[in-house]
Amino acid sequence: MYTLTRILIISFLSLFFLMAFTGANSNRPSIAEPQVSQIFRNIAEITDSASIEWILDDFLIAEDPSQVERIEIIDVSNIGFGRDDIVVVYPSLNVYIVEQPSAELTEIMRSWGIQEQRRDASNELQPNYFYPAFADTLSEEEIQERQIELVQGSILADLLESVNRNYTDMPLSLRFERDNEGFTFQLWNYDRDAFAYRPRPAAPDTVGIYDFMYVVAADTIVIADTVMYDLMFINRAVQEIIELPPAPSDRQVIRTTSLP
C-alpha cells in the first residue's frame, strides 16, 4: 500500500511539472528569422611543433602538443591578435578563449598581419580607371616589378564592370576563393529585385573585313600657282656616205659628211 501510494505521488508530481514546463514553453515567443551575413576576420595558422607547444603552455590549454597538428588563432575583435581571441585546435576542433597571454607572446602576436592587396575607392570611379592600360608602355622588366599591381587592377576592373552591368543597387557583398580542388563563389547582403542580367558586350571581331567602293564619276580641278616647265631633249644623228665614181687616174675618193 505504501509503495502504491508513493508511486501515485511521484506520478502526480511528474505530471504536474511536465504540464508546468509545457505551459511555460507555450508562452515563449517564436524566434524571428535572422538576417544571416558574413564577416571577415584574420586567422593566424601555426603548424610548427615548437611554436604550438609554447602557445598551448602560454594560454594554459590542456592539450597534448604531440597530438596537435596545427592551431588557428582568430582575431575576433578585428583589432589585432591578442586577448579575447579564439583558439581552435586541430584535429580535436576544441575551442578556447585567449584570456591573458604573456607580454612576450603578446608582442609577437601584434606583429602578425596579412599582406593585403586591397583597394578602397569611390563608387563614382568607372571600371576602366582600374584597368592597367598603361601596361603597353612598360618594359618587360617594369611589368615584372609591378606584376601584382597590374593583375589586381585587371581583375578589379573586370569584376566591377560585371557588377555594374548586372546589379543596380547597393549594397552587395561577395566572396571568391579557389584552391587546388575547386573554388567557392558566394553572394550575400543583396536585393533580389536589383539583379538585372545584361549580356557582356560582344568581343571585337579580329577578322579583317573589306568594304567595296565604286567610283561613279570624278571631276578634279587643280589650280596651280606655279608654272612648271618640262625639259625635253631631242637627240638626232644623221650620217651619209657618198661614193664617187673612180677618177680617170683609177683613184677612189670617199667623202663623209656628218650632220648633228
How would you portray this structure in words?
This protein is an alpha+beta fold and 260 residues long. The protein contains five helices and eight strands; from the N terminus they run αβαβββαααββββ. The strands form three sheets. The protein has a four-stranded antiparallel sheet with strand order 1-2-3-4. The chain has a two-stranded antiparallel ribbon with strand order 5-6. It has a two-stranded antiparallel ribbon with strand order 7-8. It starts with a helix and ends with a strand.
Short description:
It contains five helices and eight strands; from the N terminus they run αβαβββαααββββ. It has helices at residues 2-26, 49-58, 103-110, 140-145, 147-166; strands spanning 43-46, 70-74, 86-90, 94-97, 173-178, 183-188, 238-243, 254-259.
How does the SSE layout of this entry go?
Blueprint: H1 2-26, E1 43-46, H2 49-58, E2 70-74, E3 86-90, E4 94-97, H3 103-110, H4 140-145, H5 147-166, E5 173-178, E6 183-188, E7 238-243, E8 254-259
Antiparallel strand pairs: 1-2, 2-3, 3-4, 5-6, 7-8
Poorly predicted runs: 256-260
- Regarding quaternary structure, what we see is single chain
Mean pLDDT: 80
> Gyration radius, to the nearest Å?
48 Å
- % residues in beta strands: 15-25%
Alpha plus pi helix count:
5
Helix content: 25-40%
State the order of secondary-structure elements, H for helix, E for strand: HEHEEEHHHEEEE
- The strand line-up of the biggest sheet is 1-2-3-4
- Helix/strand-derived category reads alpha+beta
User: Can you tell me the overall shape?
Assistant: elongated
Largest beta-sheet details: 4 strands, antiparallel
Q: Separation of termini? A: 169 Å
Count the E strands. Answer: 8
